[in-house]
Amino acid sequence: MRIGRTVAAVLSGLVVLVGAVALRPAPTPLPETAVGDQALAERVRAVVGEERPAVAVAVVTADGTRTATIGAQPTDRFEIGSISKGLTGLLLAQAIERGEVTEQTTVGELLPLEGAPVADVTLQQLATHTSGLPVQPLSLRQAGKNIWSTLSGANPYDNTLDQELAEVRGLELDARPGTYSNLGFELLGHALAAAADQPYPELLRERVLEPLGMSGTTVPTGPAELDGRDLVGQNANGRRMEPWVGEAMAPAGGVRSDVEDMARLAQALLTEQAPGVEATRPRVGFDEDRIGWAWITSTTDDGRTITWHNGGTGGFSSWLGVDREAGTAVVVLSATSASVDGAGLALLEQGV
Amino acid sequence: MVGWVAMVGLAGWFAVRTWVPRLAAADRRSLVSDGVSALVVLLLGRAITPMPGVLSWWWVALAVGVAVTVARAVWRGAGLPWTGPAGGDVSTHPRWTVPALVSVSLHALLGVLAVVVLV
Questions:
Q1: Cross-chain Cβ contact B50/A150 below 8 Å
Q2: In chain A, pLDDT over 70 holds for what percent of residues?
Q3: Which residues lie below 8 Å from residue B32, measured CB to CB, with a gap of 6+?
């Protein structure tokens, strides 16, 4: 009896003990080996730290493009998160150049939002976060999704476009101008798609991805569209997160790309050859910075002007920045949600 | 910060109820309740509280403490009734009641669900 009790106690304690060690709240560490430019890989390892399962970086200068990938292959796709907004900004600039829309076109002219306050919002307001829309739909349903996502690692952005439009119809436009709105860019992307009479993923592929040769970049609208090249991200505590994919969220954060494609985008932005590059021109104030159509322009402490956007999803973080005066662009992609903003800025400012 | 307070608080309470004779749980129901609460809050804290760098090892240390306490609770619980006398006479009090077993079962279910969702 006493032996049985002791065995039960030891086994129970061991189960919890093993669980405690196995569940240590930290991401999988970077592996030792890197693909691509080894010097760049070492520099990146130093600035982003070891606690992330995969990271990829590209540095574009007049001398060419250098890339390095640790923990993944160069063609593996990361969620680029809100850098997707930058791509949607490029689409807006192109749509204006083509005469499909103007800055003052309202979202109600393009999407079925009759009578809703949001119908009178202009595309320019959506593209500069000045529409008064909140970051997400203000509904119990969305709040429940956010809580469930935090607890379980689920995707909180799985709405279809119809669901999103239903949620947005009742919203008041009372958010402070400058309120960063995922919802606003979702509407913007789908409004542009409606103006071109194409689904958003096709529109982006035709007008941005194919012209730039970004053949590995995808806009999945459901988990079934993912394949072996799509990495699985972890949150900052190492939990594997569900992919953030959904029809509604695609223009705001649903694009997946690899480092080579992102280097092509960065180069096109650096040389101002990107289709719709007018989107990067700053137009209004955005906190301490200025913003164009998605793209943010900041002045660094040493007086340099940087155009950039970052991204963050449940399991990924990303940063793309361009310093045109210095002739340098940097992309950092990471398979954890821990921010890489500082690392990207450091690489851009200090060089590699 | 709130996450750490909750984790340390409930793990500490579980330890007190297991190790300190004067405040020790008098029945298995209490031990199961306190133990499951400590484990669930540990997992909840892991889900919602960022723990960069050395903080992740503090979490492991706390969890190891809970593991040792679980072992002690199992060893000690083997000699306790499912439901306590609540001030009454142990010799005349039933060793289990339906409410006590329902309570233990619900806590166990909560623990399993928490593991499934939070891990």
A1: no
A2: 99
A3: B77, B104, B107, B108
